[in-house]
TrEMBL record, chain A:
Residues 113-163 form the RNA polymerase sigma factor 70 region 4 type domain. The keyword DNA-binding applies. It comes from the Bacteria. Transmembrane segments: none annotated. Coiled coil: none annotated. Keywords: DNA-binding, Sigma factor, Transcription, Transcription regulation. Belongs to the sigma-70 factor family. ECF subfamily. This is SigE family RNA polymerase sigma factor.
Automatic annotation (TrEMBL), chain B:
InterPro entries: Quino_amine_DH_bsu. Residues 346-371 are annotated as: Disordered. This is WD40 repeat domain-containing protein. The chain crosses the membrane at residues 39-58. It comes from Nocardioides koreensis. Residues 360-371 have a biased composition (Basic and acidic residues). It comes from the Bacteria. The keyword Membrane applies. Keywords: Membrane, Transmembrane, Transmembrane helix.
Length: 181, 371
């Protein structure tokens, strides 16, 4: 006999009130990640709205509110990954805005980090955010970005080298590299 | 060692000014998306009814698709050509494109949920390492699936959102059916069979509705993957099950034919010249006679037996989702009607290279590239 995978009932629905509550509860966390991924407030807001709208439309997959945040976060990263490929995100940002190396890095100078992230190609930036902000493993990051673990490792390594040049060894020590997991 | 970078990222995030959420906007977008998906799903199912014209049976399919909240029909439901150059997928006759995040595309299949792309480290159909899959959804988004096969011939029914394939565990053949919209297996059926299969990792599979055809050395099994019932069939020849739209291709030394897999009735029967063979359109309505003549070839209406002649070599053409033929000529898509043989050149310009390890490699969706 076949094993038929269980699926949620097709009439599974969430009420507007429940979903509104979920939007308010998850918004800030999703927005922070979105902003780190994209570096633009308007784009970040659009991305989070898109992810939440997709979550609403796909509620039959979500099953329950407890799983919704994870589903929305995964959807958001997938959507961002798609944007990277389809929009002008594929064009690397100009690097003239920053010096090749920050001589005396000031840890309180938060805009410097954002500017440094902006120097990374989108998928390198995503790898950094997912690995070191979301604290995902290489495998989880690969799954989220839809690429191989080797690609994640190489992109992370390249990104760290670039960030090291921009932010200094005190933020990105020389020992960090692709082997880190 | 990443603590400082991690701390900076968290500091940056926590210091952000967060705009207030607009739940009504999110809900409105979500409802709109849900409506589009339902409309597209029903439209895709209705299109199947219109194409195949078997009302009683396919009405059931419409209801099933709707019940399961199938994702919107993807590029495959458009009428335009779908093909890949390198790792770039072109759809809607080349008007739109998306890129697959891998080294090479191996083949592409039409499903009711969108375009299913098989890709990997190279464009080999077998012997090339892991075969990965992604679904290209209607908005051009690539959604990687968890399925990884190796040297397998998968089965896909354009009317359904499923990928069927086999694995072998300790000598036992398993037929797996994977829902590409949920990225979950929905069936795992044990199938008897011999262990050679012409060098593939498992027996090749074709899918037609609830039935998966699993080709082994001496017999083809017809598996009802919903109930787990396994039976042998003589309608589909042993070996490689070539089934499209519920019709199968058969061949002897002197004849080539198309049969209805449900009834066994022969729908089209033609003399065979040399090593010629029939290639069915994804919906099974038309059949292209592959032959050695590079100057022209014939395309048959399977139900009426009428045919038209198309200029060029048969192997240079692929099927559009709507059942017409297309080819690439001088960087443009040329689409030819299978009912009138009239051809039209599209306006979209197709680049010579599309990325990946085989950037100039062209693959037509719906075409078998098994070796």
């Amino acid at each position: 006999m076949p094993h038929l995978t269980g699926r949620p009932p097709s009439d599974a629905r969430v009420t507007d009130e429940q979903f509104t509550e979920f939007v308010h509860a998850s918004w800030s966390s999703l927005y922070r990640t979105a902003y780190l991924l994209l570096g633009d407030h308007a784009e970040a807001e659009d991305l989070v709205q898109s992810a939440l709208a997709k979550t609403y439309a796909s509620w039959h997959r979500v099953r329950d509110l407890n799983a919704a945040t994870g589903y929305a976060r995964t959807t958001m990263v997938n959507t961002a990954s798609s944007w990277f490929r389809r929009r002008s995100w594929r064009n690397e940002r100009p690097s003239e805005a920053l010096p090749e190396r920050a001589h005396e890095h000031d840890l309180t100078d938060r805009p410097l980090l954002v500017d440094a992230l902006a120097q990374l190609p989108p998928r390198q930036r995503a790898a950094i955010v997912l690995r070191y902000y979301e604290d995902l493993s290489v495998a989880q990051t690969a799954a989220a970005l839809g690429c191989s673990e080797g690609t994640v490792k190489s992109q992370t390594s390249d990104a760290l080298a670039r960030l090291r040049a921009l932010l200094g060894d005190s933020v990105v020590p020389q020992t960090l590299g692709a082997h880190h997991d | 060692m990443t603590e400082r970078l991690s701390a900076l990222l968290h500091d940056e995030a926590s210091g952000l000014e967060i705009p207030p959420p607009s739940a009504p906007t999110v809900l409105a977008r979500g409802r709109s998306l849900r409506r589009r998906r339902r409309a597209a799903g029903v439209a895709a199912a209705l299109a199947v009814v219109a194409v195949v014209g078997s009302g009683a049976v396919l009405t059931t399919n419409v209801l099933r698709h709707d019940d399961r909240a199938v994702e919107p029909a993807g590029p495959s439901t458009g009428d335009g050509a779908v093909f890949a150059v390198g790792t770039t997928v072109f759809y809607d006759g080349g008007e739109h494109r998306t890129t697959i995040d891998d080294k090479a595309i191996k083949s592409m299949y039409f499903t009711s949920a969108g375009l299913l792309v098989r890709h990997g480290n190279n464009n080999f159909s077998d012997g090339g390492g892991p075969q990965r899959f992604s679904l290209v959804t209607p908005d051009g988004t690539e959604e990687p699936l968890s399925v990884v096969t190796e040297e397998n011939v998968p089965g896909v029914d354009p009317r359904q959102p499923y990928l069927a394939y086999t694995t072998v565990e300790r000598g036992t053949v398993h037929l797996l059916v994977h829902d590409v919209t949920t990225d979950e297996n929905v069936a795992d059926v044990t199938v008897p069979g011999d262990l050679t299969w012409g060098g593939w990792s498992g027996p090749p599979v074709a899918l037609a509705g609830d039935t998966a055809y699993v080709g082994t050395d001496k017999v083809t099994y017809a598996v009802d993957w919903r109930t787990g019932e396994v039976a042998t069939t003589t309608t589909v020849p042993p070996g490689y099950p070539d089934v499209q739209g519920g019709r199968a291709v058969t061949a002897t030394r002197t004849r080539v034919a198309v049969v209805d897999v449900a009834t066994g009735k022969t729908l089209l029967d033609l003399p065979r010249h040399g090593s010629g063979y029939l290639d069915l359109s994804p919906d099974g309505r038309s059949a292209m006679l592959f032959d050695v003549d590079d100057n022209s070839f014939e395309v048959y209406d399977v139900d009426t037996g009428s045919h038209v002649t198309i200029d060029g070599a048969s192997y240079d053409y692929g099927w559009t989702p709507g059942g017409d033929l297309f080819t690439l000529r001088k960087h443009h898509v040329v689409t030819c009607s299978t009912s009138t043989a009239e051809c039209a050149t599209g306006s979209a310009e197709v680049p010579t290279e599309g990325g990946g390890v085989s950037p100039e490699d062209v693959r037509f969706a719906g075409r078998s590239y098994e070796s």
